[in-house]
Amino acid sequence: MTAKPYGLYCPTSKACEVLMPRWTIQILGELWGGSSRFNEIKRGLPGISPTLLTKRLKEMQNQGLLERVEDKATGSIDYFRTEKAAELDHILIELAKWAQKHVQAEIALEDRDADLLMWNIRRQIDVSKLPARRNVVRFNFSDATSPASTYWVITKPGEDVELCASDPGFDVDLFVETSVRVFTGVYLGRMSYERELDNGTLFLSGDQRLARTLRDWLVFSGHKDYDHIAKLPA
Question: Rounded mean pLDDT of 145-169?
Fold first, then answer.
């Protein structure tokens, strides 16, 4: 435990002593989302330094929240949530529901980091719902604050989704023109996908099959279907 204990005996306070050190819950979220390698976790949490991430992973391992697994043949290291950590899932889901309901949409959508958005988007693509060939989708964000504002997502049957921040040199099948604010809003259910298409703040061009089925092959956040989400006004 890295922080001074609260000095309170109640179970909630004891839980906070374990979970409240900065980035602990966010690391659990990355592991929950499928990241297992150090660089994957770091990519999903751009605000944490490598030194602090190393420290937190060690602490969480000591607390029994994650397991460190080393492949002796390759030297690669993976981190996996333990059953103890998985028991927190329903608590984190309820916390997310509370945030979707009570945190104002303007605050929830104030970040403009396109890199972080696309890192999450690439995990939400269902390749089985796409044509059985190579598909290239280019996303361009007008308000990105990250170093890159244009990204290419490349899919092939039976292969992991590839995310590029530089032109891979393939013909583009579908162009997505929007802003980080709008796409994050529709991804999280804070804004209406259909309304943003009608308004032209989300513009799709190219392969019409890919455009019409985007909501099938790009699975928006599981947080978007909660009741009473605080939305931006129409």
Answer: 95
